[in-house]
Design a protein that fits this description.
With 232 residues, the chain is an alpha+beta fold. The chain has five helices and ten strands.
């Protein structure tokens, strides 16, 4: 008798499961439900979107706006716009996100904590014959006249290039184009020192020989330059 009750209960559970599954399939087909990505949390401006920022929900296709991004993989790696605050569970529209290449302020998106974008005037000579490229590391030397002598030494090492721009402020895309401006990532604490060094002397840029794993934007200690800069 007990076994019959168990079998009966299992049969009922199975029938309920089949009924639920059947009704779900029926409803999905009737409503034409599709999965769409939404914000899994509040997304602040300039958020780099990862898979953790995306949740998938089902909605009737008829209620899905044409301008939202349907492919979650197309969202990963993009940034929210500088004026876009996307609340949790909101649609992710194509006009609220952009790629790194599309972002006008993209150099600032490449900064590490404590770094700022610093602009250097450059020419063919200071870019080693136009061989330097974005994301490459460089060392910054300075030459200064001091007490009737010329002091030349390295001031900052392992500085990352963010972008190279022409005279019109556009990114250099071809090796034949001459750079006019170099944007680099400098530790915020070194901005005033580097600015003073450039005002008092001449900047020399050389490709860095340091390992990419080394810390970036490092002030070179025990250099005569520091003494000169602090005295001037």
């Amino acid at each position: 008798m007990k076994n019959n009750r168990i079998i009966f209960a299992l049969c009922c559970a199975g029938l309920l499961g089949i009924a639920y599954l059947g009704s779900s399939i029926y409803i999905d087909n009737r409503l034409d439900l599709i999965e769409i990505p939404v914000a899994a949390q509040d997304l602040a401006p300039r958020t780099l979107i990862t898979k953790e920022h995306i949740a998938m929900v089902k909605m009737p296709k008829a209620y899905v706006p044409a301008s939202i991004v349907l492919d979650p993989q197309a969202l990963i790696g993009q940034y929210t716009l500088i004026n876009a605050l996307i609340p949790q569970s909101s649609f992710l529209y194509g006009n609220t996100v952009e790629t790194l290449k599309e972002a006008k302020d993209y150099p600032s998106l490449l900064l590490n904590e404590g770094q700022v974008v610093y602009a250097l005037d450059v020419d063919l000579k200071s870019t080693s014959g136009n061989t330097l490229q974005p994301l490459q590391k460089i060392d910054l030397y300075v030459t200064i006249d001091y007490n009737r002598m010329t002091v030349v030494d390295q001031l900052i090492g392992n500085v990352r290039i963010l972008s190279l721009k022409d005279k019109n402020g556009k990114d250099i895309e071809k090796p034949s184009e001459l750079p006019k401006l170099m944007l680099v990532a400098i530790d915020q604490s070194l901005v005033s020192l580097l600015t003073k060094a450039i005002e008092l002397g001449d900047l020399i840029i050389t490709p860095s020989a340091q390992d990419n794993q080394n810390p970036e934007s490092i002030l070179i200690p025990n250099t005569t330059l520091l003494k000169v800069l602090y005295e001037r």
